[in-house]
Specification:
612 residues, elongated, 13 strands, PX_dom, 4 domains, 25 helices, PX Domain, alpha+beta, phosphatidylinositol binding
């Protein structure tokens, strides 16, 4: 026999002997007691199906937790019964189904249940049957008479209402029974139920509201004024339009001083104080145009709180706004504001609605639930389509002109800008701002003279004037009182040299329906950068006015300005003014100008042109 064949047979025999030995050892160790140990590792390894099932169970528990914690189920009743043929049983020819109606914060739905399903739930509950309502018992002789069905319906309804009234985290069996998870998933609501889950800020708000209202204490003047204006809005319904207008002016440049807690109170109110927020006060049920006149200013103020042009901390405001639950949002009955053609509040209300839907990524089913009204849904769809078309047109225009597409993106303050704005006001800060490409917001223009603002804290004006640079310096220093709005007089208190002096400027401004005479004492310096460029700086000086001085003032203020004057041609000069709005009264005087409510800038430019 071939030696190779003998070697192969030997190896086969050897392997077979090893296999027999292994079988003997395994048979001796494999007992009922050791079987689960030997195969535990393999059996405990979940397959894909098991992992998916575990994930669904976890998601269901999260949903059930929110449902229980926030009392989302409002009512449960048995509204009807119907019979169906029973083809399996020989004892009766039909089965009775009890139709249960469930009302929630999101949806209302109905499901049929048989008596046997009720019975299984009753036997499985972790509650003593002695304390529950009497459960209808099975009869020895099966009967489905009208009297029996009616009695069972009444008893089963009491049983369900008892479970709803005592619903807690130990009764998830009840939630499985009414199939609420499937209904939420069917409508797409399970993705948005998270909005019932409060943020840390809202938890803090609830903790405060549940105790003494004295615990909510404003920390600054801006927060004090929030509560002041809310009381006014709640007390004087007929004056709400005017009050909203005052709020918009007052909080311009100061809304960022309000804490998240007070901002939430501004939006949704304070239940402990019985104080409504602006969302409740904008609720109007009717669709006639006349009823919506008062809410125009309210929606305008609401929208501006969420915009970076008005509120430097708009990102935080948008986050708080998006955390408002759908139930709270629906109190605004926003559909009544967006239906119809002639309402001036329509555009602002659509913008607010769109921002809320975008932030929470609401599905169509949720949007339909939010708006209720078919006309409102069509109006919103039309608005979204217009926004998409507008963006497409802008993209095409930018592409055609080879401009940077980034200019289309929504702008907001970057970290560098925030860092600069949070610095103490200094001349160096103004110089740094003048050299940076920041997000200046356009305010208005008059004959190529343009005004911008930076988050309501800085003003920039650009003046192209037809005169030599020497004349321009004189106009923006010695002759300033002849054209600058509200300026009564300018005097030199002390002259250091030809280029440096201590000056006092007098202004008169309207502040809260009264007129104030303001005095600004400053160090003024004219510095020649080169033959074609001059720099004028005005910084606060703490020097006191002489007691015998001819003009008296109501209040002293502080202002800081950087004026850059550059000769373009022999008779053409460009002047750029950067100004820090340091004084509160000065800020209140400039706010209506920035909000384009008074022609302050136009009047000043008309007088300036008369000097040329």
């Amino acid at each position: 026999m071939d030696s190779k064949l003998i070697m192969q047979q030997f190896k086969i025999t050897q392997e077979f002997n090893k296999f027999q030995i292994a079988i003997i050892i395994l048979s001796q160790s494999f007992t009922p007691e050791t079987a689960h140990i030997l195969f535990r590792q393999q059996s405990e390894r979940p397959n894909l199906l098991q992992r998916q099932r575990n994930q669904k169970e976890c998601d269901a528990k999260d949903l059930y937790t929110l449902i229980v914690n926030n009392n989302m189920i409002k009512e449960i009743r048995i509204i009807n019964v119907f019979k169906e043929e029973d083809r399996e049983s020989i004892f009766k020819n039909h089965i009775v189904n009890y139709v249960i109606q469930i009302r929630t914060d999101y949806i209302d739905y109905t499901i049929p249940k048989r008596y046997s399903e009720f019975e299984r739930l009753y036997d499985s509950l972790p509650i003593s049957q002695k304390i529950m309502p009497k459960f209808p018992q099975k009869k020895v002789i099966q009967t489905n008479s009208r009297k029996t069905i009616a009695k069972r319906q009444e008893m089963l309804e009491k049983f369900l209402q008892y479970l709803l009234h005592h619903l807690d985290h130990s009764l998830y069996l009840f939630l499985d029974f009414i199939k609420i998870k499937e209904q939420f998933q069917k409508g797409g609501f399970d993705q948005n139920v998270k909005m019932h889950q409060f943020s840390k800020d809202e938890n803090a708000l609830c903790d405060l509201l549940e105790t003494s209202p004295k615990k909510i204490q404003p920390n600054n003047q801006a927060e004090q004024m929030i509560l002041h204006f809310l009381w006014k809005l709640n007390e004087t319904v007929n004056e709400r339009g005017k009050i909203f207008q005052k709020m918009e002016k007052h909080f311009f440049g100061k809304i960022q001083q309000i804490s998240p807690l007070l901002l939430k109170v501004l939006l949704i109110g304070d239940d402990e104080r019985e104080l409504q927020g602006i969302m409740q006060m904008l609720s109007i049920q009717t669709n006639d145009v006349q009823s919506h006149i008062s809410c125009i200013n309210g929606f305008q103020f609401f929208r501006k709180i969420l915009e970076y042009d008005y509120n430097p901390n708009a990102e935080q405001a948008i986050k708080l706004f998006s955390e408002i639950s759908i139930k709270q949002f629906r109190t605004m009955t926003i559909q009544s504001h967006i239906c119809g053609q002639q309402k001036l509040c329509k555009q602002d209300s659509l913008m607010i609605l769109h921002k809320y839907i975008q932030q929470n990524q609401l599905k169509n089913q949720m949007i339909n639930y939010l708006l209720v009204d078919d006309e409102a849904i069509r109006e919103y769809d039309s608005y979204v389509q217009k926004q998409v078309n507008k963006m497409n047109d802008e993209v095409k225009q930018i592409r055609d002109s080879n401009e940077n597409l980034q200019e289309l993106l929504p702008t907001k303050s970057n970290s560098i800008e925030h860092a600069i704005l949070e610095q103490e006001p200094t001349l160096e800060q103004l110089v740094e701002i003048s050299q940076m490409n920041l997000n200046w917001k356009y305010v208005q223009e008059c004959g190529r003279h343009t005004m911008y603002h930076l988050q309501g804290q800085f003003i920039k004006t650009v003046h192209p004037i037809e005169c030599p640079i020497e004349k321009a310096i004189q106009i923006f220093t010695d002759l300033k009182q002849q054209w600058f709005h509200g300026m009564l007089q300018k005097d030199v208190l002390e002259k250091v040299d030809d280029y440096r002096s201590v000056i006092v400027e007098y202004y008169i401004w309207e502040d809260k329906s009264t007129f104030k005479k303001m005095a600004f004492i400053s160090d003024q310096e004219i510095l020649k950068i080169n033959d074609s460029t001059y720099q004028i700086t005005i910084v606060p000086n703490n020097k006191q006015l002489p007691i015998h001085y001819k003009l008296k003032c109501d209040q002293k203020g502080q202002k800081m300005s950087l004026i850059l004057i550059k000769s373009i041609q022999s008779n053409h000069t460009e002047v750029v003014i950067y100004q820090n709005i340091m004084d509160l009264t000065f800020r209140n005087a400039l706010a209506p100008v920035i909000l384009k409510e008074i022609p302050w800038f136009n009047d000043a430019i008309s007088k300036l042109k008369a000097l040329l």
